[in-house]
Write a structure and sequence with these properties.
The chain is mainly alpha-helical. It contains three helices and no strands. It has one domain. Helices cover about 70% and strands about 0% of the residues.
């Protein structure tokens, strides 16, 4: 849980300074969200829900954007 909270704080910091959140951080966030999302401290719940909606949808789109069929 501590790792997840630190990651949330890092992403919030990056957003405050208009720094792009890297795909690696987005993926790590989604993975940790699946484990700790329901137990996140109250003060982060709104931000965590917003980030999950932003990053989880973005990953699905990016994963399909580069798939090719022959």
């Amino acid at each position: 849980m501590e790792e997840f909270v630190k990651l949330v704080e890092q992403i919030l910091y990056m957003e405050n300074f208009n720094t792009e959140v890297t795909p690696d951080l987005k993926q790590k966030f989604v993975q940790l969200y699946n484990t700790y999302g329901n137990a996140v401290p109250e003060k982060y719940r709104g931000d965590v829900a917003r980030m999950f909606n932003k990053f989880a949808v973005g990953q699905t789109v990016n994963a399909n954007a580069f798939s090719f069929s022959y």
